[in-house]
């Protein structure tokens, strides 16, 4: 199979979908790898490193699209890239289709075979290709939240850790998954007062045990969310519905009742966001203020640390990419249920139920009409 890797064109996205070690692995399996020139520069990987691993470097993105049987990317294809997709071409990337009906319909119309990293799900419910980026985003969330709370950015001017004789900030984390756990670890580590909400008592017990009791855990419901969010200095939105749109846990009215100069970091914005006032922003223009509350809603947060993120991501994607290349997608999804769950769109059909439900579209199991 011929695998294509492109230079990402989404604003401020400097990650790349494959490392030289990944190229070596595909070549060792008898495949060819085409890489657009400059694809790895943002992650500190020069073209010569890819060439040395056995890749063929192409100067034009269009040549990579046209020559590849499978495209491996980091982010979803943008409007200018859609026309280059062709029927039966495999697209393997983060898709987050529940946040974009237009992209969902475009992929169906192009008759591609589109797998979303974020929807590859094992039998135990874990999301192996989302975990590494969730770790990065959760860790970064506290750093970005601290930035939002600085007075120069419209924040109330509070230091998360506090100092001797001055109380620390109140940090509220919505969701106790990978994002929430990592945000909790960092926030607690620097001395903030942290409260974590989730609907799963087992996850709350886990976080309380791991943090050795240095965190408050609260069951997530409307009343508790209202109580905690209105007294928070910083709210981290780390809620996830695999493949589906994020529930709006923080209403516009609730934002109005938050403390002036408080902040929201909505990590879930790439799935629509868990706050009604959230809208996607970029690394160059990351924040906006609504009703006195600073919002940070960058949809590709791990792109802020592309070298770490690239290596963490490709460590996770490589085995699945090789499986698709070695077996072809039809045999691969029959052998691996996790990959089958990751198939979002296939030859005009919407094959992920949460995506179909998000837009009231017809859902079809892979291979069925």
Uncertain runs are none
Look at the structure and name the CATH superfamily of the largest domain. NAD(P)-binding Rossmann-like Domain
The CATH topology of the largest domain turns out to be Rossmann fold
How many separate helices?
13
The CATH architecture of the largest domain would be 3-Layer(aba) Sandwich
Would you state the CATH class of the largest domain? Alpha Beta
- Considering DSSP H and I runs of 4 or more, what fraction of the residues is helical? 25-40%
The count of domains is: 2
Main sheet record: 8 strands, mixed
- What is the end-to-end distance? 27 Å
Overall 3D shape:
globular
Gyration radius (Cα, Å) is: 21 Å
Q: What structural class should be given to the helix and strand makeup?
A: alpha/beta
Task: State mean pLDDT (0 to 100 scale).
Answer: 95
Count of DSSP strands? 15
Share of β-strand residues:
15-25%
**What's the order of the H and E elements?**
EHEHEHEEHEHEHEHEHEHEEEHHHEEH
Question: How are the strands of the largest sheet arranged?
Answer: 3-2-1-4-5-6-14-15
Describe the structure in your own words.
With 369 residues, the chain is an alpha/beta fold. It folds into 2 domains: 2-127 and 306-358, NAD(P)-binding Rossmann-like Domain (Rossmann fold, 3-Layer(aba) Sandwich), CATH 3.40.50.720; 131-304, NAD(P)-binding Rossmann-like Domain (Rossmann fold). Helix content is 34%, strand content 16%. It has helices at 20-28, 47-53, 61-67, 101-109, 131-148, 178-189, 201-210, 222-230, 252-256, 306-327, 329-335, 337-342, 353-358, and strands at 2-5, 32-36, 56-58, 70-72, 90-93, 113-116, 170-174, 193-198, 216-219, 234-237, 263-266, 287-290, 293-296, 343-346, 349-350. Helix 1 (20-28) packs parallel to helix 2 (47-53) and helix 10 packs across helix 11. The longest helix has 22 residues, at 306-327. The protein is globular, with a radius of gyration of 21 Å. The two termini are 27 Å apart. The mean pLDDT is 95.
């Amino acid at each position: 199979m011929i695998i294509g890797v492109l230079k990402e064109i989404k604003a401020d996205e400097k990650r790349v979908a494959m490392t030289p070690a990944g190229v070596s692995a595909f070549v060792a399996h008898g495949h060819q790898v085409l890489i657009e020139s400059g694809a790895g520069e943002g992650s500190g990987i020069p073209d010569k490193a890819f060439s040395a691993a056995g890749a063929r470097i192409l100067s034009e993105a269009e040549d990579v699209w046209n020559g590849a049987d499978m495209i491996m990317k980091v982010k979803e294809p943008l409007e200018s890239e859609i026309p280059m997709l062709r029927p039966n071409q495999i697209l393997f990337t983060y898709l987050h289709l529940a946040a974009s009906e237009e992209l969902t319909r475009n992929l169906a119309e192009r008759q591609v075979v589109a797998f979303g990293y974020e929807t590859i799900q094992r039998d135990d419910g874990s999301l192996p290709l989302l975990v590494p980026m969730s770790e990065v985003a959760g860790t970064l969330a506290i750093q970005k939240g601290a930035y939002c709370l600085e007075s120069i950015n419209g924040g109330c001017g509070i230091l998360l850790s506090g100092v001797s004789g001055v109380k620390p900030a109140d940090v509220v984390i919505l969701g106790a998954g990978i994002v929430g756990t990592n945000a909790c670890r960092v926030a607690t580590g620097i001395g903030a007062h942290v409260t974590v909400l989730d609907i799963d008592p087992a996850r709350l017990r886990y976080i309380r045990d791991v943090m050795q009791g240095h965190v408050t855990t609260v069951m997530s419901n409307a009343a508790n969310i209202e109580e905690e969010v209105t007294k928070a200095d910083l709210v981290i939105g780390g809620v996830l519905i695999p493949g589906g749109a994020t529930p709006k846990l923080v209403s516009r009215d609730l934002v109005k009742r938050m403390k002036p100069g408080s902040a929201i970091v909505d990590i879930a914005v790439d799935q629509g966001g868990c706050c009604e006032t959230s809208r996607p922003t970029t690394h160059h223009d990351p924040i906006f203020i609504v009703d006195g509350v600073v919002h940070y809603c960058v949809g590709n947060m791990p792109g802020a640390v592309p070298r770490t993120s690239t290596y963490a991501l490709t460590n996770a994607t490589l085995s699945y990419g090789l499986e698709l290349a070695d077996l072809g997608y039809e045999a691969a999804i029959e052998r691996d249920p996790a990959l089958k769950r990751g198939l979002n769109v296939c030859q005009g059909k919407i094959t992920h139920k949460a995506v179909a439900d998000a837009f009231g579209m017809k859902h079809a199991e892979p291979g069925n009409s």
